[in-house]
Amino acid sequence: MSGRSRLSRRLGRFRRDRALFWLLVLLGLFVAGRAWLADHPGDDPWAPLDLREEPGWATARKITALRNDPAQCRAVLERSAIAFRQLEPAGEGACRREDRTQLTDFPLNPTRPPTTCAVAAALELWLRDGVNPIAQEIYGSKVARIEHYGSYSCRRLYGRDSGPWSEHATGNAIDIAAFVLADGTRISVLRDWDSTASEPDRADRFLHAARDRACDVFGTVLSPDYNDAHRDHFHLDQEARGFGGVCR
Questions:
Q1: Residues 162 and 94 placed together within one structural domain of the fold
Q2: What is the C-alpha to C-alpha distance for residues 83 and 108, in angstroms, rounded to an integer?
Q3: Domain co-membership, 60 together with 15
Q4: 16 and 130 belong to one structural domain
Q5: How are beta strands 234-237 and 173-181 bridged, if at all?
Q6: pTM of the predicted structure, to 2 decimals
Q7: Is the CB of residue 216 less than 8 Å from the CB of residue 181?
Q8: Residue 46 belongs to a domain
Q9: Is the same domain home to 2 and 125?
Q10: Is residue 16 part of a domain?
């Protein structure tokens, strides 16, 4: 066999060995990646959403997918052991509410109004991963009650006679007015929000942080920073507006 033939065979074996090496490397990375995702379902875009799991980079996308799929959303609530009641559709025309989901253990006050399922799911995550940890960090106390101004209102935006309908018209929104901690401390959006303060007090810091964390799970979040109409509440809804939603 000539030297050229031997060199050609050696090069062929080298290429095959190199291809096998990289195939094994890729296979190992795939197996390791799947194992890691199994331990971090919040980062796995294919894992069914469970609200009890630690949130990851895929969680927001999964929540977004619930906005137009109430049946899937209710399956998520059941899988996550969230207590809720599915109510019959109600209303007519633009104010027809096909998706009426009522959280039965959530600390809303004075009532637990029915909302869309996607709003209900976001409220659960917001309380667990946002509101309560913030309250614990700043006050050393969890939230016992969340006061609200309601969810459903058959009206157009800002109560006008014409123009787009409000998300409240279908219960796809809720207005949050205040938080009452387990130690009795009451934090009011109207009284305690002051975005111009040079050294915000605890209530102001809590409200700003709670607003920011709501933006992780709701499509639209409006606060006193948005306009005077929201000076006394947070408006939270699940309508997608633009890339990444609205957080003001």
A1: yes
A2: 14
A3: no
A4: no
A5: antiparallel
A6: 0.83
A7: no
A8: no
A9: no
A10: yes
Taking only the tens place, the pLDDT of each residue in 32-84 is 545 544 555 567 888 999 999 888 888 888 988 899 999 999 999 999 999 99
105-109, 160-164, 239-243: segment of lowest average pLDDT: 239-243
- Residue written as token pair 């929104």: 173
CATH of the domain at 57: 3.30.1380
**What distances in angstroms separate CA 23 from CA 12, 13, 88, one per listed residue?**
16, 15, 55
**Gyration radius from the chain CA atoms:** 25
Domain that holds residue 21: 1-39
Decide if 70 contacts 55 (C-beta within 8 A): no
Question: Does 185 or 25 have the greater pLDDT score?
Answer: 185
Within 8 A by CB and 6+ apart from 213, the residues are 126, 129, 130, 131, 134
User: Is residue 212 situated within a structural domain?
Assistant: yes
Q: Which two tokens stand for residue 50?
A: 């469970």
- At which residue do the structure tokens 């109409």 appear? 229
Please give the residue that has the higher pLDDT: either 119 or 244: 119
